[in-house]
UniProtKB/TrEMBL annotation:
Pfam families from the UniProt entry: PaO (PF08417), Rieske (PF00355)
Chief location of this protein within or outside the cell: membrane
MF GO annotations: 2 iron, 2 sulfur cluster binding; chlorophyllide a oxygenase activity; metal ion binding
SUPFAM superfamilies with a match to the protein in the record: Bet v1-like, ISP domain
Sequence ranges assigned to domain Rieske in this UniProt record: 53-155
GO cellular component: chloroplast; membrane
Domain of life per record: Eukaryota
Signal peptide: 1-18
Compartments, record wording: Membrane; Plastid, Chloroplast
Protein name: Rieske domain-containing protein
UniProt organism field: Prymnesium parvum (Toxic golden alga)
Length: 492
């Protein structure tokens, strides 16, 4: 995971970044905009396509129903092929008449059966193995190579661009499979560009304010100057705290999607916060967050408490409290910021049909438009320079399967309450939250009936207890569906 760097280059680079706002060096300007603005340069396409993309956390993914999701603009369907004990992934389009395969079902032989006319596809190569209309089986769905690693299901992006054979391994993080650490996972579909999610995650100084009363306190705010500890490269960059006594951390970007923030303390437990920022559609991403605490070095009550809150059984509880709240704290801010980033952007170029396309520049002339006087913005500056240098400022190279409408227009500006929505963006495809939702609904219905029966029988106390239980279940149900508004940080 550690970025390798030539010592001399690193030295020169660190010296240069002592003043992060100094004029950009030549290496950072190496990329000129392409002559034909609709043609994405091959190296940019390769950067996004030739990757293993995380799709799902396997522990909270359905093993009975197919799950629809997007990666790089392409609609995909993922399912569990029980007879072969493997996750499978196809383009979510039936080759027969383009129905969504994710509306179908998984048959007893582990194949995905289309809901429209019942063609059944095996997951290995996408071949159609059953055709109820009795023609010779023909047609093949587009299949993506899939691996499971570190509790994540990954698919090879190259297949979406009609190219590159799968190679290399997924971008895993050592702490996530280190027995000294406990790991809690959360994911959420967000109305934010993936690069904004990454710039936010790598920025320690927003935590005290944006997450006031969620995981931090604004009274504890301090300067967190950051210094590049490796040169900006195509495969990412790493920054470390310039004042480790204040904040002993590092912020690392493993291009093009993995943001990692680690704190290492000699006298206390270490933490590693991981965020896979997966581009789903233009202006949208899936944040797949892993919180790794070194529980082995925690004192006893805390160790058990953190261990318990990371347990699979209680995943839904963290998904409706801290984990969801932290993402929601940022969501409204980032969604709005992105809209203003784009304001100064030229309209996206029309692209030839079938060609991989891309939107307008995401944050044009950001260096001139933003005030960045302190080194606490070091990770933001590094991330935006990485986007400028290695993607020509365009960010994601969207696959040819991206809906044309999503490429043509900038994403709409959503109302704040829409960004707190938790069912479409998470619970419906999280087995833990779906289970909790079904239980909460059953408990509420039963407690309501119980309260009425007790009331009719004259047992007022029992009726009150049942009514209390119904209210509790109803509030749980509400939290599984939508985040609280207004945010707590406003109150004090
Ligand atoms: C935690 O951080 C300390 C201090 O940097 C380091 O010596 C130790 O190896 C780390 N432990 C783990 C499990 O990563
Ligand atoms: S569209 Fe899938 S079987 Fe007809």
């Amino acid at each position: 995971m550690a970025l390798q760097l030539a010592p001399l280059a690193a030295l020169a680079f660190t010296a240069r970044l002592a003043a992060p706002l100094a004029p950009r060096s030549r290496v950072l300007l190496s990329a000129d905009p392409p002559a034909d603005p609709s043609a994405v340069p091959a190296d940019v396409v390769q950067l996004w396509s030739e990757q293993w993309w995380p799709l799902l956390f396997s522990a909270s993914a359905s093993k009975t129903a197919p799950t629809p999701l997007h990666v790089l603009g392409a609609p995909l369907v993922v399912w569990w092929d029980a007879p072969r004990a493997r996750w499978r992934c196809l383009l979510d389009r039936c080759p027969h008449r383009l129905a969504k395969l994710s509306q179908g079902r998984v048959d007893a032989r582990g194949r995905l059966e289309c809901a429209y006319h019942g063609w059944a596809f095996e997951g290995g190569g996408g071949a159609c193995e059953a055709l109820p209309q009795r023609g010779a089986p023909c047609g093949r769905a587009l299949a993506l190579p899939v691996v499971e690693a570190q509790g994540l299901v990954w698919a090879w992006g190259g297949a979406l661009f009609g190219g590159a054979e799968a190679r290399g391994g997924p971008l895993t993080v050592a702490e996530a499979s280190d027995p000294r650490f406990s790991v809690a996972d959360y994911w959420r579909e967000c109305a934010v560009d993936a690069t904004l999610a990454a710039e936010n995650f790598l920025d320690p100084s927003h935590v005290y304010f944006a997450h006031h009363r969620t995981i931090a306190r604004r009274e504890h705010a301090r300067a967190v100057p950051l210094r590049l500890s490796s040169p900006l490269r195509r495969d990412g960059f790493s920054l470390r705290s310039a004042q480790p006594q204040e904040w002993p951390g590092t912020a690392t970007f493993h291009a093009p999607m993995l943001a990692v923030v680690s704190t290492r303390r000699a006298g206390s437990y270490n933490t590693t916060l991981v965020n896979y920022c997966v581009p789903t559609l233009p202006g949208r991403c899936r944040q797949m967050v892993r919180i790794c605490f070194e529980t082995a070095r925690m004192p006893p009550p805390l160790r058990q408490l953190i261990g318990l809150s990371s347990s699979r059984r209680l995943a839904w509880l963290s998904h409706i409290t801290r984990a969801a709240a932290v993402v929601e704290d940022d969501h409204g801010l980032l969604h709005d910021i992105e809209h203003f980033y784009r304001l100064a952007a030229p309209p996206p170029p029309a692209s030839p049909p079938g060609a991989p396309s891309q939107g307008a520049e995401l944050a044009p002339r950001w260096e001139a438009r933003l005030q960045l006087p302190t080194r606490s913005d070091g990770s933001f500056i590094a991330l935006r320079r990485w986007v400028d240098t290695y993607t020509r400022g365009r960010g994601v190279a969207w696959s040819p399967h991206t809906p044309a409408a999503a490429l043509a227009a900038p994403p709409p500006l959503l109302a704040p309450h829409a960004l707190l929505e938790r069912f479409e963006s998470h619970a419906q495809h999280c087995t833990a939250c779906r289970g909790a939702l079904a239980t909460a609904r059953r408990v509420r219905a039963a407690a309501q009936v119980g309260a009425l029966l007790c009331l009719a029988a004259g047992a007022a106390r029992l009726a009150a207890a049942a009514y209390g239980a119904a209210m509790l279940a109803a509030s749980l149900e509400a939290r599984l569906l939508v985040g609280p508004v207004p945010r707590e940080r406003r109150d004090s």
